[in-house]
Amino acid sequence: MRRLDEPLTVEDLARRANVSGRHLARRFRSATGTTPPQWLLNQRIRRAQELLEHTDDGLDAIAAASGPGTATTLRRHFDRALGVTPGEYRRTFRRRPGQ
Asked: Which domains does the chain have, with CATH numbers?
């Protein structure tokens, strides 16, 4: 979770777990019901949601901090996953101090 902003592949995760990429993918799907890349994307979207709710950071900064890298990529994944743009999400769920 601390490395969501870094490029990560299944092979990177497998090396960290000291197993093959294929073994990790099978075990991961068995345990979570999803693939490692889809899980990673979901975590990055959740991180972007947190940043949209709690910061005034622009989309470029949020994309860099959450992992998609660019605002364009963040918009595409965010809309595909949630059905709204990051801007719409922020307007709806932004938490102001004291709320």
From this structure: 10-93 (1.10.10.60)
